[in-house]
Design a protein that fits this description.
6-stranded parallel β-sheet; single chain; 6 strands; 193 residues; 14% strand; alpha/beta
Length: 193
């Protein structure tokens, strides 16, 4: 309904974790087809992938599995988290994503979301996008999370990699950040896009 009402390009579905989400990780093909039919246009799938702390191979395999699920329901992208990055970890994330792309299906992009809890900054996501050097790796820009950690977004450097803008719908989803404080940030980004 929101896709039609607001003119969005699609909905973002979630993998099931702990009982929440629309897509079971072990879903059969028929189940995935039904989800696709019910959801209409899907813009991406939020994946609770294994993060870099588990190792390059583990993250790569997890991301690849989510790419396959996205392909099955014709989602053009998956939204992932990298995990808590220490200095130099970006290169390990790049290795994991490059492996997942090489071994996974074509036609599905990987979008990294900057996130307070996953400790990935916008700057780190841009670094990863530049290093992978493929248009199949981009960013889900979450201005609210950048704002909460006090990160200033360099729009000139960031926007070439932004493929999706995350907009939280209310103050509960904004983790207590008043929506009106974020409106000028969203407005600047939308105007620049």
């Amino acid at each position: 309904q929101a896709v039609t009402q607001y003119g969005f390009r699609g909905v973002d579905l979630r993998m099931q974790t702990g009982g929440s989400g629309e897509i079971p990780v072990d879903a059969e093909v028929e189940c995935l087809k039904q989800i696709r039919k019910d959801a209409g246009t899907v813009s991406s799938i939020l994946c609770y992938n294994k993060q870099i702390e588990t190792g390059v191979m583990e993250m790569a395999d997890s991301v690849r599995q989510h790419l396959e699920i996205a392909k099955a329901i014709q989602a053009p992208a998956i939204r992932i988290f990298t995990g808590k990055l220490k200095d130099g970890d970006e290169r390990h994330v790049c290795a994991a994503l490059e492996r997942a792309l090489a071994e996974g299906p074509s036609g599905v992009d990987i979008l990294i979301q900057n996130h307070l809890n996953a400790s990935t900054t916008v700057r780190q996501a841009v670094t990863i996008c530049k290093a992978t050097n493929t248009d199949r790796v981009g960013i889900v820009l979450s201005p609210d999370h950048a704002w909460m950690i006090g990160e200033e977004i360099d729009l000139e450097d960031t926007l070439p990699y932004v493929k999706q803008l995350y907009i939280a719908g209310d103050e509960t989803r904004n983790m207590g950040v008043p929506t009106q404080q974020l409106q000028p940030i969203y407005r600047r980004i939308i105007q620049a896009l």
